[in-house]
């Protein structure tokens, strides 16, 4: 588990194909690895990876075919900058929100515009994730815990303050860029809980307006 508060920006040092998947070697910059051990989890652009080798300022991790298919890690090039965060502990301040490091899908930067000293971004999420994104709710974008300012369909807006622009890779975001999205854990589990016994049915039995109305949610009185 992570908090979505980026601890350092690293760079991709090496990318090595390995039998259908890849191994990444990442220079960690100012990330503190003194307490890290092989097998520990480190979030890379919001993706939870397992360290398979460690140096004082670098680590390597294997990236499976499943992760390559669902995230932007397969598009990385040597030299790309990466948001890094080590796993939280029971003494870690929860400055962001609970983040699992399990990416739900890829979003796209649609628009970027200045807003006083901040930058405002509009993003498009996959249609399948739109129902989990709520105004003033939390979302994790490339490993950064952020607040959703506005939602319209599958598009939403975020406002990035100067510190976050400087301390993460978000300052590099431009329209057309693909980013890793992880929706709020509470939203995902709430959907499953509301399904009740229907959750055991084969895939395809998700929440619908008809289902909610039949079970007393949103019904007119």
From TrEMBL:
Q: What is its EC number?
A: 2.5.1.9
Q: Does the keyword Repeat apply?
A: yes
Q: Which CDD domains match?
A: Riboflavin_synthase_like (cd00402)
Segments annotated as Lumazine-binding repeats: 1-97, 98-194
Residue intervals of the Lumazine-binding domain: 1-97, 98-194
Q: Which GO terms describe its biological process?
A: riboflavin biosynthetic process
- Segments forming a coiled coil: none
Q: Which SUPFAM superfamilies match?
A: Riboflavin synthase domain-like
* Matching InterPro entries: ATP_synth_asu-like_sf, Lumazine-bd, Lumazine-bd_dom, Riboflavin_synthase-like_b-brl
Pathway, according to UniProt? Cofactor biosynthesis; riboflavin biosynthesis; riboflavin from 2-hydroxy-3-oxobutyl phosphate and 5-amino-6-(D-ribitylamino)uracil: step 2/2
**Gene Ontology terms, MF aspect:** riboflavin synthase activity
Cited function: Catalyzes the dismutation of two molecules of 6,7-dimethyl-8-ribityllumazine, resulting in the formation of riboflavin and 5-amino-6-(D-ribitylamino)uracil.
Q: How does it assemble?
A: Homotrimer.
The name this protein carries in UniProt is Riboflavin synthase
């Amino acid at each position: 588990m992570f908090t979505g508060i980026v601890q350092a920006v690293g760079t991709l040092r090496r990318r090595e194909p390995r039998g259908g998947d890849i191994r990444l070697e990442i220079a960690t910059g100012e990330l503190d690895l003194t307490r890290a051990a092989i097998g520990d989890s480190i979030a890379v652009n919001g993706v939870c990876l397992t360290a398979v080798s460690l140096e004082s300022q670098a680590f390597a991790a294997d990236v499976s075919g499943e992760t390559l298919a669902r995230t932007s890690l397969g598009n990385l090039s040597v030299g790309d900058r990466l948001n890094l965060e080590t796993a939280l502990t029971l003494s870690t301040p929860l400055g962001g929100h609970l983040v699992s490091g399990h990416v739900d899908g890829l979003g796209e930067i649609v628009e970027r515009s200045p807003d006083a000293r901040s930058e405002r971004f509009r993003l498009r999420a996959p249609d399948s994730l739109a129902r989990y994104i709520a105004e003033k709710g939390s979302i994790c974008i490339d490993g950064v815990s952020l607040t959703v300012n506005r939602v319209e369909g599958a598009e939403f807006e975020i406002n990035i303050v100067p510190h976050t622009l400087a301390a993460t890779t978000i300052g590099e975001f431009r329209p057309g860029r693909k980013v890793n999205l992880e929706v709020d854990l509470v939203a995902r589990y709430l959907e499953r809980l509301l399904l009740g016994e229907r959750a055991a049915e084969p895939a395809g039995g998700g929440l619908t307006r008809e289902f909610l109305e039949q079970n007393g949610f949103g019904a007119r009185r």
